[in-house]
Design brief:
This is Heavy-metal-associated domain-containing protein. With about 290 residues, the protein is mainly beta. The chain has one helix spanning about 5-30; strands at about 65, 65-70, 80-90, 105-110, 120, 125, 130-140, 140-150, 160-165, 180-185, 185-190, 200-210, 210-215, 225-230, 235-240, 250-255, 260-270, 275-285. The model is unreliable at about 1-55 (pLDDT under 50).
Length: about 290
């Protein structure tokens, strides 16, 4: 093979590798670093109607409003794992005092960056060290997002997010087509309601089992349903609670608005017969 031929082959190989890396990056989003802090001040804006009051979309950065989320380890093995972390203030001291929201001092969401493997868990705080920990988080190879949702004592609601890498063979799952119905653990759930960016809307989840409406949903964390929305790409986080708690199903309504056009995966937690179930949906939000 001539020198020129070898050079052409080398350049073509480099171009192919670059294209592959670019494609993976577009699928899984930023890995190993947080999105630019400026993203928290872009067109996402405020979120009116998120439960009893609006708040900005969160989880885009590990540090915000003087607080920082720091994992004990930035990498974990596949399988059920312990996740430990601290929330520190601007002075570097761990935060140990929280105001309870929805019956917990802190809510933790762990999800792979392709929006699979969603888990909403509640770690335990070591009040002496400020370390939070939770066992049994199921991890598969890939890049994961760890999102902490909390209220510092006397402060404002804060949502922080950081990446956790799990080594191994990884093939991201495509988001797929929009899906407003879900089947989980023998339950069928439908999601109804119009969606548009910066447009207040009511999303209504209806739960049935074996074709029979479920009208005896049980309170879970003080409500009959919890809805988490994650934006495809940067995993911007919205935690929505029912607009009121006037009934035990089969319908649970959530009043919210989406911060920008794009695609979102929504995760509904509901409890029935003593067990918490999670249904997932995929929606596209148009530019209004």
């Amino acid at each position: 093979m001539s020198t020129v031929t070898r050079l052409v082959a080398y350049v073509a190989g480099c171009a192919a590798l670059f294209a592959l890396a670019l494609g993976v990056g577009r699928v899984v989003g930023p890995v190993g670093s947080d999105p630019a802090a400026a993203a928290e001040h872009d067109d996402m804006g405020a979120m009116p109607g998120m439960g009893s009051s609006g708040h900005d979309v969160g989880g885009l950065a590990a540090s915000a409003d003087g607080w920082t989320l720091a994992l004990d380890a930035a990498e974990a093995a596949p399988g059920p794992q312990r996740i430990a972390f601290t929330i520190t203030g601007a002075d570097g001291a761990p935060l140990t005092a929280y105001d309870e929201q929805h019956e917990r001092d802190l809510h933790l969401v762990v999800v792979r960056r392709d929006l699979t493997g969603f888990q909403h868990v509640h770690p335990t705080l070591d009040a002496d060290t400020g370390e939070w920990s939770v066992d049994g988080v199921e991890l598969t190879p890939g890049a994961w997002r760890v999102v902490a949702d909390f209220v510092p004592a006397g402060g404002e609601k804060t949502v922080l997010g950081t990446d956790l890498l799990v080594p191994g063979d990884f093939a991201p799952e495509p988001l797929g087509a929009d899906r407003r119905t879900a089947s989980v653990d023998g339950y069928d759930v439908t999601l109804a309601g119009d969606v548009g960016d910066h447009v207040e809307t009511v999303l209504t989840a209806t739960v049935s089992r074996g074709g029979v409406p479920v009208s005896d949903l049980e309170p879970y964390l003080g409500a009959h349903g919890h809805l988490v929305a994650l934006r495809d790409g940067d995993l911007g986080y919205l935690h929505v609670h029912p607009e009121d708690d006037g009934g035990a199903g089969p319908e649970v309504a959530f009043r919210t608005s989406f911060p920008s056009p794009g695609r979102y995966r929504l995760f509904l937690d509901f409890q029935h017969a003593g067990t918490v179930h999670t249904a997932s949906f995929t929606v596209s939000v148009d530019d209004h």
